[in-house]
Design brief:
Elements lengths: L2 H18 L3 E9 L3 E9 L2 E11 L12 H17 L8 E10 L5 E11 L3
Parallel strand pairs: 3-4
Antiparallel strand pairs: 1-2, 2-3, 4-5
Length: 123
């Protein structure tokens, strides 16, 4: 399975997980030119949740969260503002950036799914 299809599978799993936990999905794979992408945009209790999904094959001493660099965090913060502007929403709309980390085994079964709420702060 390619990295792209693995990522898509993880995003599908994350979307299902969020819906089962009371989130409303607003958008998936929101892109802005070549600047970046938001994997999942959802809402719950009046707050917009920007979910970054990282999916990997489970392996010792490495977690999907390890892929969220400072550069990626900065890009995600900027993309949230671009999304709000594009959707004509106030920039002070309650919001947070979550990370959903998914580890799969060789049979594509979930070994772990971790939802880190408000994982990237400093708004």
């Amino acid at each position: 399975m390619s990295n792209q299809s693995l990522g898509q599978q993880g995003e599908d799993m994350a979307t299902e997980y969020l819906q089962k936990n009371g989130y409303t999905i607003l958008s998936r794979n929101f892109r802005y030119k070549s600047f970046g992408e938001l994997d999942i945009v959802a809402s719950k209790k009046g707050k917009i949740i920007f979910a970054e999904v990282k999916t990997i094959r489970a392996r010792p001493n490495f977690q999907p969260e390890d892929q969220i660099t400072i550069k990626k965090q900065t890009q995600l913060r900027k993309m949230t503002q671009i999304y709000l502007s594009a959707k004509k929403l106030p920039l002070d709309t309650p919001q947070q950036i979550d990370i959903i980390a998914i580890e799969l085994d060789i049979n594509d079964l979930v070994v772990a799914l971790r939802h880190h709420q408000n994982a990237i702060e400093d708004y």
